[in-house]
Each structure stands twice: as C-alpha cells, then as structure tokens.
Amino acid sequence: MDDNGSNTLSDGEQGSQSGSEVDQLMNDPPANKCFPSDEFFMLSTQMTQLKTSQHSLWALHQCLQTARNILQSPRIRQADLDCVRRFFREELYGNVDKVLQFPQASKFGLHDAEEHVLETLQLLVLVAAEAFEYRTSLQPSAQTLELDADLQPVAQSLLHLFNMHKPLHSEVADAEVPETTVEFNQLADQLSEKWALSYFEDNEMEEGDVQNEEPMVERHRWLTHLVNLFGHVGGFNSLLLLLRTPGNLAFPLVNMMTAVLSQAIDVASAQALEKFRQVATVVLEHLAQLVAADSERLANYGEDRTYHTCQILLNTNLPRFYEKDPIQPQVLVQIKDVQCTFVLKMLESSNFNKLLSGVTECKSMLKGAVKDQKPPDSPCSLQSLVKWMNDNNIVQRILRTNLHQRQYVEQVQGIMLILTQSQYLTSEHLDMLWAVTEKVLGALIVVTHLCHSLICIFSVCVGCMCIYLPCISHLLLWAHFGRLPVGGWQCRHAVACCGFRSVTG
Fold this sequence. Notes:
elongated, mainly alpha, two-stranded antiparallel ribbon, 2 strands, 22 helices
C-alpha cells in the first residue's frame, strides 16, 4: 500500500507477479480444458481394443480405470468428459452384460481370473459412483439432460450387476469374496451404516447330510460386497439426492435409477430400505403430477412403445419397494390410482400410441390383480378393478377405434380373456363387441380381428370350464340367426362346440 492508500505494486513486484501469471497460463491456460489430455487418447485406444480384443474382461478393466481417473480429476476437460460419455453410451452396458453372463467372458479357469472379475466389477461400482456424484454437482439445463441420456447405460449396468439371478452371481453364490481385492473390507466393519446385510437362504439338505447341519446358509457374498461398496463410496447417496428432485432429471433416467434402488432391496439393510422408500414416494408423487397433466415428459420419443418407461415404473419398479411391507398398503393404493388416471388419460386421446398404451396398461392392471389375489374388499382387488372399469365404461372405450390394428386388438383380446377367465365377462360385454362389428361390417379386417377374439373367448370358456349360460345362449342365437359375419364360419364352429360341450358336459 503506498502513501495514498492505494494497492499499487512496485515495478519489481509487478514484474514478479506478471512472471508468475505467465507461468501459470503456460502450465494450465484456460483454453487447455478444451483440449484432450493423455487420458483421452488412452481411453480412445482402450475402447478400440475393447471392440477387437479376445480378452474383453481385461480391456473393460482398463477402460474403467481410465474413466475413473478422468472423473476423479479436479478439473475435467470437456474433451475428456465427452470421451467418457462415449464410453458409457457405446461400450459399457454390453460389455458388463458379457461379464455377468458367466462363463462366456469371465473364464474362471484361468489363474486369478476370479479375483480379476471382482476387481473389474468393483471398478464399475466406483466409476458409477463417481459419475452420479459428478451429476449432482450440475445445475439443471439442456446440457444436463443430454448427459442424463449417457448416464442411463451406467444405471442399467448397475441394475444388472445387483440382480442376484444373473449367471455370474449364481455361479459364485457360495463363494467367498477374494481377500486380494477387498482392501475396502478392512474399513467396512468399522462403519456404523450398512447398506447391505448378509443374505441367507434355506439349506437344501440331500440324503446323507448330517442332521445337525445349519438350516440357513449365507449366500451371495459378492453381491452384498458390491452393494455395500457402492453405498460406502457415496453412490446411493448421490442417487437419493438426485431422485429427491426428479423434475430436474430426464424421465428415463428417473426410471432407471429407481430400478437400481428397487433391485438392491434384495440385500438392503432396514435403514437403507427406509431411505429407498422415502425417495420412491417422492418419485411416485412426481409421476402422479405428470400423469394428471398428461405431460409429454412421459413419452419415449423414437420408440414404438411410447409410454413403456412409465408403465415399467408403475408396474415393476415402484411396487417392489412395498410388496413386503404390510404397514404401508396405502402406497400401493396410490400406485393403483395413478395407473387408473393414466389409463383414462390415454383413452381420452385420439393418438394411436396413447390409446395402445392405455389398453396395455389396463391389461397389466388386470393381470397384476389376478396374480396378487387381494381380498374382495381391498381397493387393489380384482373386484374393485372390474367395478372401476364398469363405472368408467372402459370396455366400451377400448372398442371405440383402432380395431384394424393387430397389436391394438391383441391387447383388447387380452383384456377380454382375463375377464373371461376370472368369470367377469358379461353378455353386455359381448353386445358391445358385436355392436362394433355391425357398425363396421364393411371393414373385413376389423370383422376378422373381432371374430378371432370371439374364438379365443369361446376356447377359454370351454377350457376353463367357466361356461356362462347367458353368454353362450347369446352366441348360439347369433349363429342361428346368421348374425355372425360372412367368413366367420370358424366362429360359428366355436360357438357350436361351446354349446355342445355346455349341454353334454
């Protein structure tokens, strides 16, 4: 500071500072973050080797190690990040799936191959944790939505890694975790929070086994170790943090991350499961808002099954959190309400993809209700679902249009068959089906599709011995008075068979 109180520097000091700034710019100029580093060229070369090498496990290990080094860098260069994203997008999931499909890629017969497989899977867990931690540091933007698309294969790889029914996990179900790969385990016992607990199964005793053998045996130590590792390095915390604001994420990534959590509950501790359920409730609330608003975020652009992601989330991923929780049945009721709203919204549209999605979801709801066999007074029971369908004229709505589309008619036929098997098919349903045939009698393809559906219904009636006499009499009158369309001789034959068997049987 000079006499005037200003912070000016002397000539010597100015020259010294200028020299240090020049040195810093030469060593790490701002533009350098746009240029690739040595890791960029290394990962690019390793990705080429991964495509051509006969030792895909070793090549995958090298790619994962380099990708982790890039993600751990305090200042990630854009070119390096783009290379890691390309590795995620093009190579990661397919090669991880090869490893999990034992023994095609793992080759346990080689020396130390078992340890090398686990080391590679541990690297996958560490890279995934680093990637999701990096995503938590970003603000929502169009660029982050593009990054979310590249993170989907990462989440999908974790989803398959945490699946205990994969061939690799089945092969090593009774194996110990190799000591040479678990320096992490030295610290694990000292940690207060466990993300995964030991998994026990009934011991299937064979003839000659000692009677006092343990009735339960510990299995899937590898899986437990990998789930714990992902939690201890912050992977689960990153997923939970991201899913607390699902509106900031691409919807397919929300579904995939939710699937990872639902897959991990097979070995999750009680504390971890409670955290998973809390964030699943947030996801369900967000999904309910999207469905009520008929948001375009639910759609998968570029795919035939436009709303397939939403349906997986409703039918598979979210229910898994609460299937074994008798204390919170109201959550399953909320899921069912969202499903009903989704069906109604889809059937109100004139868009074929939406109509097909609505019919498919209605069929899935019926199949789930038949499988669960809830008590009749339960809001999620088959009886309650059929009542909702009747109150909202669902059968009439699904017969309104698109009956010339085979894939649509197949879903409608599935609904009618489930109603038939469950003994909820009524004469009114058949009247609705036939009324459509009369309206479009000139459309041969529609008549053909509907007649095929009737044949299937008749076959189920006979095969399941659930013969509805009012319905059969309806059908016999149609056949007798010629109401069945020209070319529907197969349908008349099926009606005759049903009538004969109902009388003679």
